[in-house]
From TrEMBL:
Its EC number is 3.6.4.13. It catalyses: ATP + H2O = ADP + phosphate + H(+). Belongs to the helicase family. RLR subfamily. It comes from Cyprinus carpio (Common carp). Residues 555-682 form the RLR CTR domain. The keyword Acetylation does not apply. InterPro entries: Helicase/UvrB_N, Helicase_ATP-bd, Helicase_C-like, P-loop_NTPase, RIG-I-like_C, RLR_C_sf, RLR_CTR, RLR_Helicase. Pfam families: Helicase_C, ResIII, RIG-I_C, RIG-I_C-RD. GO terms for cellular component: cytoplasm. Residues 13-191 form the Helicase ATP-binding domain. This is RNA helicase. The keyword ATP-binding applies. It is found in: Cytoplasm. It is an enzyme of class 3 (hydrolase).
Length: 692
């Protein structure tokens, strides 16, 4: 099949065809991936011993790029392998790379292969002649893309040869949150330095691009502020009672209820309570976060959704009241439950944003061929909106057929994804629901209710309405969402409260979008020598910073010996194990090998994953026997032994230096030993007669 390009695409591929490292900057729907296919094809045709890796940042994009773009144009001539964290083949990545002309994989798969020294799994950057990096604006800070490119830049600075050509693809590099042009220019230069690339865009054929990707008409659907909110006020009154239960110095430091700032405050407060082993503060903070979530939901969707969330939370804790704090908090909710439920079911006080959203959807869906995406902030928000759409007679009258689309991050670590799920008794499914997208494409569904997963990369048909509902995001997400409205005369609607933060953020993002374009233009205007000088300076600083950070990280890892570290349940402070009891499998899964640990936990619902894995399979969810806090799950390793696999967020860590609450296993201040099956499992099998 011929891979024909539009005029503006031909313009932006020229630098790459000359063998230069480049970032292609085109809007969502502008055909960046098709341009990458064309460049890859030419590269494979003209480069001796060519080998290409296409890196993506989300699991579902592996199959999409393979099936929709690369296989149709290159599959008959070249050997292509598509590998993600979901693939069983990832464990033979090194072998697959040797046997293929082109691999499409999540960045984490390549990163794992770069650090794994087993022959069948290991690869070097120099094994490739071209790296294509999708959504390359993520190549910054601690991202996996930047870890890979950090190695690349270090090799370049050290003048090591045979490095692959780089091709980055982005709809917007953004400004890094900067509002001044000079700082925005610095941010764009930083992205260019991280990717060791120039940034290219169309200059000659902008009108052609604008015709292919028309800008949607933007409208602000402004809603007057709620005049009466007795449900929200009642929640706030209950929160004040919890404030009064805590020491006065603590509650005075908390910001306005019902805001993200308040959430940040109580998250920190819970950590402080855990570190000081002050259960009163830790538990009050945990419960205040639930009430604040309810206020945020009340502000976004229905009162009944907010009430339901709180009701589920307190129902799950009824049987695990450990002390006076638990009794007070549970009692407070139980005493107010009936009144809250009554207030939540009173339509007079319902959220006015929903009435506006209903009008926006009704107006658009008068045309039976309409397709729309409704973006909401959280998974929970998407489910609440889905319920609302399906139970709304007016929306059913205009034949709205809705589906939910949410995702699961990079998919690099299935176990971690499973453990972060709240409803442990259910079966788990973590990949993008391709059935939903298929039904949307074919018209079985005409409304997608989505989190940010649909903003980036997903191949979704052109929509004539995109609604951003109660969202506070950056200019990159805004541009990508608006790029989903690609049908002629399409509408991009922002449903928000009068004078609210969403409007202010949206206007700021509009300014930052134009600032990004100015910053890119300024970078493109630089002479090649000035650009190279600036990039080289940034790269040398980055390499030195990286080496220093690596040294500090290694020092931190060696700060304590495993025997000096103790783990406590984060909720009840029960001492459950020592650092000596822990092992890591494949540098990802942290298990407890001490048979005594079993007496501290209770096993619950079975975890079910869509994919199978080479060495392990999921078992039951585990939780603290004392307080019911979820700790992780059991895994069956090599079909022989069952081990508890722990999520670090469920524990606090006690060391000679004090207590801490690490967010990730990589943050712990001791070296977790690698799992050695024979050595570590000998105690499990000591009573077996192995000579029989």
């Amino acid at each position: 099949m011929d891979c024909n390009l539009r005029l503006y695409q031909e313009e932006v591929v020229q630098a790459a065809l000359r063998g230069e490292n480049s970032i292609i900057w085109l809007p969502t729907g502008g055909g960046k991936t098709r341009a990458a296919v064309y460049i890859t094809k030419k590269h494979l045709e003209t480069t001796a011993n060519a080998k290409v890796a296409v890196l993506v940042n989300k699991v579902h994009l592996v199959d999409q790029h393979f099936a929709k773009e690369f296989r149709p144009y290159l599959g008959s001539t070249y050997k292509i392998a598509a590998i993600s964290g979901d693939s069983n083949e990832k464990d033979l990545f090194g072998c697959l790379v040797k046997a293929s002309d082109l691999v499409i994989c999540t960045a984490q798969i390549l990163e794992n292969a770069l650090i794994n020294m087993e022959e069948e799994k290991h690869v070097e950057l120099t094994d490739f002649t071209l790296l294509v990096i999708d959504e390359c604006h993520h190549t910054q800070k601690e991202s996996v893309y930047n870890k890979i490119m950090g190695r690349y830049v270090e090799k370049k600075v050290r003048k090591e040869g045979n490095l692959p050509q780089i091709l980055g693809l982005t709809a917007s590099p953004g400004t890094g949150g900067n509002k001044q042009l000079d700082k925005a220019v610095e941010h764009v230069l930083q992205i260019c330095a991280n990717l060791d690339s120039v940034i290219v865009s169309t200059k000659e054929f902008t009108p052609v691009l604008q015709k292919v990707v028309p800008r949607p008409k933007k409208q602000y659907d402004i809603v007057e502020r709620r005049t009466l909110d007795p449900f929200g006020n009642h929640l706030k009154a209950m929160m004040l009672m919890i404030h009064e239960y805590m020491p006065p110095t603590v509650s005075r430091s908390l910001r306005e209820m019902g805001t993200q700032e308040y959430e940040a405050d109580v998250v920190e407060l819970e950590k402080e309570g855990v570190k000081k082993e002050n259960r009163l503060i830790a538990q009050c903070a945990l419960h205040l976060r639930q009430y604040n979530d309810a206020l945020l939901i009340n502000d976004t969707v229905r009162m009944v959704d907010a009430f339901r969330g709180l009701d589920e939370f307190y129902n799950s804790r009824k049987t695990k009241l450990l002390d006076g704090t638990d009794i007070f908090l549970q009692g407070l909710f139980d005493e107010n439950r009936v009144e809250l439920k009554q207030l939540a079911s009173n339509d007079r006080y319902e959220n006015p944003k929903l009435a506006q959203l209903q009008c926006t959807l009704q107006e658009e869906f008068n045309d039976e061929n309409s397709r729309a995406i409704l973006f909401s902030k959280t998974r929970r928000g998407t489910h609440c909106l889905f319920d609302w759409v399906n139970s709304n007679p007016e929306l059913q009258r205009v034949n709205i057929r809705a589906g939910i689309l949410t995702g699961a991050g990079t998919g690099a670590n299935h176990m971690t994804q499973v453990l972060s799920h709240k409803k442990t008794s259910q079966m788990f499914s973590y990949s993008i629901n391709f059935e939903t997208i298929k039904h949307f494409r074919t018209g079985i569904l005409n409304l997608l209710i989505s989190t940010s997963v649909a903003e980036e990369g997903l191949d979704i048909p052109e929509c004539n309405l995109v609604v951003r509902y109660g969202l506070l995001t950056n200019e990159i997400a805004q541009q990508q969402a608006s790029g989903r409205a690609r049908a002629l005369n399409s509408v991009y609607s922002v449903v928000a409260e009068e004078g609210g933060r969403e409007i202010r953020r949206e206007l700021t993002n509009e300014y930052l979008e134009s600032l990004t374009a100015k910053a890119i233009d300024q970078v493109q205007q630089m002479s090649p020598s000035e650009f190279r000088r600036k990039i080289s300076g940034i790269q040398q600083i980055a390499v030195m910073t990286r080496i220093q950070a690596e040294r500090k990280k290694n020092e931190r890892k060696q700060r304590y010996s495993p025997s000096q570290v103790q783990f406590q349940c984060r909720e009840c402070f029960l001492l459950v194990c020592s650092g000596e009891d822990l092992r890591k499998i494949e540098n990802a899964h942290h298990v407890n090998i001490n048979p005594e640990f079993e007496k501290h936990y209770r096993a619950g619902g079975q975890v079910v994953l869509e994919k199978s894995f080479e060495d392990w399979e999921p078992g039951q969810v585990i939780s603290c026997k004392n307080c019911g806090k979820e700790w992780g799950m059991e895994i069956k390793f090599k079909k022989v032994v069952t081990l508890p696999c722990l999520k670090i967020k469920s524990f606090s860590m006690k060391t000679p230096g004090g207590k801490s609450t690490p967010r990730q296993w990589k943050d712990v201040e001791f070296q977790v030993k690698e799992f050695d099956f024979l050595e570590d499992m000998s105690s499990h099998f000591h009573d077996l007669d192995l000579d029989e």
